[in-house]
Amino acid sequence: MVKRIFILFYILTPLFAKEFFTQEKIKTYLNDKNPYYYSVKAHYYTTKQQEQITKARFDTKLRAVYEEKSYPLSTASYSQASLTKSLYNGIELSVGYRDAQGTQEYNNIKTGKDGEMIASLMLPLVSIATNRSRNAIAYELSRLQSKVSNAKTEGNVLALYLQMTQNYFELLYENELFVLTQTLLEKAKERLAFIQKEVKSGNRAAIELLDVQSQVINREQKLLEVTNKLAQSKNNFVKFLNLTLQEFDTKYKIPKLQMLSQRLQSKQEYMALAKKQRQEFLQIAYEKQKIKEQTKGIVLEQYPEIAVELFGVHDIAYEKDGYKVSANVVFPLERNSYKGKKQLYKKEMLGLNALEATLTNNIKTNITNLTNAIYLMQKQVKLADREIKLRQKLEMAENIKYREGLSSLVLLNQRESAALQSQKKHLQALVKTQIYYIQLMYEVGYHKI
Half-sphere exposure of residue 263, counting CA atoms within 13 Å on the CB side? Predict the structure, then answer.
């Protein structure tokens, strides 16, 4: 006896150990191990690394050169080591050491026997005056692009969550339909057992048994269809969790479809929240910052490119100092690049303003439609609930009459079908309410992962 109890406990323990898969658990599966999630986040990860790569423009660089020659009429050696650093405003600093002996091949540099210390300062005057350099602009644009990518990615993650949640509620709906269809089949089987006894005792005609048997077969076929839809619905949902069906079924149970518990806010409140939370608005804001940064950058093309370099040396052996000053000026006369980019950025800014206005109007319309749909579905749920109670009373009364021989199988089947349809309408209203609410939260920008 004890052994049997132990075996029974061992068999039933996994069933009781299962937990309901609630909506909140979806978020726990949105991580980098999930390929659906990672494929959405991958672009942001690569863009973030690109930002790091662009930052390398300001890296300190070590430069080393060594040359030695021995020609028939000349010999020489040259070695140099220097550190170079580019600053944010375009200034470039360099310090180092060089040693040049003999007749150089490409320059006339010659140092004392101990070599000389060198230092240089490159001054891009326009960049210094505007506190803008090409390297700095490239880095700022890369940094802003990283933010744009992050905002876009978060919006895509929210869309993925929306898809997963819709599939989740569709799974709950199909599971409820499966239970209803199974219940309907059980009623037909109970009726078959009742009629078999009645026919055997001579209270019913044999043809009634054939009708009930046909009804059982019909409902078994219907259960197969519903079972297939449930399996498809489960597959469509579980694939997003990066789980196998066996892993899901071992760990989780499917809960019942519940009525929406959240209280709706006003459309104005939802729109205000959307302005703050929708990633598309943040993305547009960063895109505008990029255009402002690019507009500042074209100042460098508006004026001549003037670079002054100061170069100083100190010979170690002779203990003497020297210097060199050079200037480089480049000025595109037509300035087509500056003029074209200036108009380009203006057009891009106007395009972003139009996009923002379009997005605002679309979200406002969607919020209005979804809140109206939710209110309507909530009323449908209440009406369907009342209809279910009425249909079930009629079904019970018809069943009693049938057992007493005062009704036919056709009428009873109609009552059961009507009761089933009212339960389906109730479930459809429930699942639509939940899905509309999830879509509303998407419009508002909730459920950030």
Answer: 1
C-alpha torsion angle, residues 414, 420, 425, 427 (rounded to 10): 180
- Two tokens, residue 102: 């003999």
Token look-up 């989780």 returns 252
User: Would you call 52 helix, strand, or coil by DSSP?
Assistant: helix
Q: What's the one-letter identity of residue 171?
A: L
Q: Per-residue pLDDT tens for 152-185? A: 999 999 999 999 999 999 999 999 999 999 999 9
R_g (Cα) of the chain, nearest Å: 39
φ, ψ of residue 298 in degrees (nearest 5): -75, -5
- Burial of 325 per CB tally in 10 Å (0-12, 13-18, 19+): exposed
The letter for the amino acid at 214 is S
Nearest to 273 by CA among 165, 367, 159: 367
Please tell me the distance from the alpha carbon of residue 364 to that of residue 272, in angstroms, as a whole number.
10
Q: Is residue 19 a contact partner of residue 253, using CB atoms and an 8 Å limit? A: yes
Beta-strand pair 61-70/75-86: antiparallel
Distances (CA, A) of 365 to 360, 434, 440: 9, 19, 11
Average pLDDT estimate for 354-369: 96
pLDDT (tens digit per residue) in 224-247: 999 999 999 999 999 999 999 999
Ranked by mean pLDDT, the top range of 142-156, 192-206, 352-366 is 352-366
| Structure confidence at residue 17 (pLDDT) | 62
Nearest to 190 by CA among 392, 427, 394, 412: 412
